């Protein structure tokens, strides 16, 4: 089945760069959007439309005639609340409301483990774990998951919320459990798009890691079957990192460094993320 029109927000971001080509192949028209001036060379069937998520009229203009929206646009770090309010909170409302008004069927949302980041990894939480955000950033993910639930209950707008753990190169011990490879990311998003009926759904974005700290079994109907396993990196990572501090919430909680930083302080600054964005 080929969709008439899909919308991708956050297309200029690292994860968005890997989603553009497979999404373009699934539809007649892919409208990629971000606040950047351009995103370089476009794929067949793709066009770029700049839009600020905090501005409803700009978001609504993206949605005209859309079948589904893949919403990856946001500030992807902890910041003071007022800096996140526009893009991460108001932006989510704008996406859902504009999608509903345009008659779209579904929103696929890049949620995050940070919605439940203060849960301990040893608890092996499932998709029904109560919200326990580690930051204002995580709180925005909780807000949007609840927003999606409400729009399904009240307006029958479907949504799939992808609680991504860590989609980045494996260079620390936390990532041995939390890694989501780019190939598995693509599979995760495409299954969220092409599954016939999803209602309101939550699923963890994590690869088939031996040390995965979450339980995805209740979301198996979405058809996501990850292939990659971070264990291939374990010997090197563990030798380089050495023993961890078991009193450190950054080691013990799902949120990693985000569980440790003060509210409003960058979590990304505590991490070593390689910017291996896909080039067109």
TrEMBL record:
A Pfam family: Epimerase
Class of the enzyme per the UniProt entry, highest EC level: oxidoreductase
Entry's EC annotation: 1.1.1.203
UniProt keyword terms in alphabetical order: NAD, Oxidoreductase
Domain of life: Bacteria
Location of the NAD-dependent epimerase/dehydratase domain: 7-164
UniProt entry tagged with the keyword Membrane: no
InterPro entries attached to this UniProt entry: Epimerase_deHydtase, NAD(P)-bd_dom_sf
Keyword Oxidoreductase annotated: yes
GO molecular function: uronate dehydrogenase activity
Family statement: Belongs to the NAD(P)-dependent epimerase/dehydratase family.
The protein's name: Uronate dehydrogenase
Species this chain originates from: Sulfitobacter dubius
Taxonomic placement: Bacteria, Pseudomonadati, Pseudomonadota, Alphaproteobacteria, Rhodobacterales
Gene that this sequence comes from: udh_1
């Amino acid at each position: 089945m080929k969709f008439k029109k899909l919308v991708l927000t956050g297309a200029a971001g690292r994860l968005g760069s890997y989603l553009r080509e497979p999404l373009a192949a699934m539809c007649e028209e892919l409208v990629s959007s971000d606040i950047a001036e351009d995103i370089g060379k476009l794929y067949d069937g793709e066009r770029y439309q700049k839009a600020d998520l905090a501005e409803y009229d700009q978001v609504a203009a993206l949605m005209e005639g859309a079948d589904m929206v893949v919403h990856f646009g946001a500030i992807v770090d902890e910041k003071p609340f007022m800096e996140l309010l526009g893009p991460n909170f108001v932006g989510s409302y704008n996406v859902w409301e504009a999608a509903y008004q345009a008659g779209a069927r579904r929103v696929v949302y890049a949620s995050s483990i940070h919605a439940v980041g203060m849960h301990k990894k040893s608890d092996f939480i499932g998709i029904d774990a109560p919200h326990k955000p580690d930051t204002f950033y995580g709180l925005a993910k909780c807000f949007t998951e609840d927003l999606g639930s409400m729009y399904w209950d009240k307006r029958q707008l479907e949504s799939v919320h992808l609680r991504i753990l860590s989609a980045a190169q494996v260079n620390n011990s936390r990532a041995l459990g939390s890694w989501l490879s780019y190939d598995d990311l693509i599979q995760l998003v495409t299954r969220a798009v092409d599954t016939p009926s999803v209602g309101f759904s939550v699923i963890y974005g994590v690869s088939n890691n031996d040390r995965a700290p979450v339980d995805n079994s209740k979301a198996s109907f979405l058809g996501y079957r990850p292939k990659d396993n971070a264990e291939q990196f374990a010997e090197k990572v563990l030798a380089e990192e050495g023993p961890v501090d078991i009193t450190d919430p950054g080691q013990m909680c799902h949120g990693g460094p985000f569980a440790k930083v003060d509210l409003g302080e960058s979590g990304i600054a505590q991490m070593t993320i390689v910017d291996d964005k896909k080039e067109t």
